[in-house]
Amino acid sequence: MSDKKLNNQISDYDLSTNKEETAQSTDENNSITVDLEAIEDFETLETPIILKQRYQIIKKIGEGGTSNVYEAFDLEDKKELALKIIKKNSKVISAKKRFELEGKTLKNFSKYPNIINIYDYFLCGEYSVIVMELLKGKTLKEILKEKKILSVEQTLNYMFQIINALEIIHGEEIMHRDLKPQNIHINEVDNTIKLMDFGIIQADVDQSITQTNYVVGSVEYMAPEILKGNKATPRSEIYSLGIIMYSMLTGVVPLKGLDFKDTAKKHLHELPPNLTEYNPNVDEEINKIVIKMLNIDDYERQSSMEELRKELKEYQDKTKVKSEEKTVKKSLGKVSDEILLKNINDAESKKIKPFNSKILVLLVINGILILVALSLIFLIK
Q: Which end of the chain is more exposed for a tag (fewer CB within 10 A), N or C?
C-alpha cells in the first residue's frame, strides 16, 4: 500500500470504531480485559490482564523508548506469543491511524519465512497493540556484541535473507523504515533471519525528531535523504543495510557521532572509511559494494534489492570460483610434490654405491697374492 493511498484512507478513518475497547471491564474469569493504564504495574495486580478477552499477558520481556514487549498466551488458540504495546504518546497519534491500516497489509506477509508472523493488530484507547510470534534466539545486535566481526560467508547468508524480506514488502510499496541490528532476529539453530519491528507500525521517538519533521528510525542507520525529511525508498533502505553490513564485517558502526546532531551531520556530509581500515581481511570487491550502498547521493547507490542481490551474488560466485581454484592448485601442488619426491627416491636407488675402501684394499691384496702364486707355479715348472 503506497503512502498516497494510505493518506487518503487516513482522512476517512475514525478511531471511534474502537471505542468499545477503551473501557475497563471484568469478565467472568475475573480478568482485566482492556485497561492498559495499569499495564506498567500488571505484575502487582491480583487479576491477570487479558486483552480482547483472548490475550493473557504473562511477563514483560522487552522495553524500548516507545513500546514494551510482553510474553503472552493466546487463550483461544492455546499458544505462546508476544504482544508489543506502543506507549501512549500524543506525538504519534497519526502513526497509530497508519498502524492499523498498514498492519492489515503486513498480516499478509506472515507466510514468508524471513518476516515475523503477525497475528493481530488493534487499538486499545490510545495504545496500539501488535500480536506476533514469540521468537526464540537472538537479535543481530546481540550476536555482534558477542562475536564483534562476522565472516564474509555468514554476512552474505544474512544479507540474502534480509534482501528477500525487503523485496517482498517493497513490492507492496511499503518500506521498513527502521532497519537496524536489533530489528533483525536470528534463530541460531538454522541461521534463519526474521525481520521485525517495522517503522510503519512503530514510531520510535528516541533520537528521531528533527526540528521540522517527524522521522521514523534510528539516526545511526538513517539515510541522508531521510534526515532531510524525504520519504523512505528502496534506496534509503539500501543505505541502512549498508550500515548494517559494514558493522557485520568490521564490528564498527560507521559515521557515529557524539550525539544525534553530530551523527546526523556525518551521515549528511561524510563517507565512511574503507572497511579494510578496520578489517584487513575484507577484499576490495566487497568493500566497493558496501561503500556504494553508503553513497550520500541516493541515485549513486544500488537502485533496488534486486540489483543489490545481483551484485552480492556475483561477488559470492567469484569468491567461490577463486576458492575452488585455490583448492585445486593446492591439491595439484601436493601431487606434484609427491611425484617429485618419488622420482628423487627412484634416482637415488638406481645410483651405483661407491666401494668401501677396506673392501678395495682386500681385493688388491687378493689380486697380488694370486699373481705371486701364479709366478711361483711358473718358476717351479
A: C
Could you list the beta-strand ranges (E) of the chain: 50-51, 55-63, 67-74, 79-86, 118-124, 127-132, 138-139, 184-187, 192-195
Q: Are the CB atoms for 152 and 320 separated by under 8 Å?
A: no
Looking at residue 243, its pLDDT comes to 98
What distance in Å separates the CA atoms of residue 294 and residue 145, rounded to the nearest whole number?
23
| 109 plus 144 within the same structural domain | no
Range name among 37-41, 132-136, 199-203 with the lowest pLDDT average: 199-203
The pTM (predicted TM-score) of the whole model is 0.72
Which one of the listed residues 178, 197, 204, 298 is annotated catalytic?
178
Is 262 in the active site? no
Closest CA to 61 of 156, 134, 165: 134
Instruction: State residue 113 phi and psi, 5-degree precision.
Output: -65, -25
Are residues 142 and 265 located together in one domain of the fold? yes
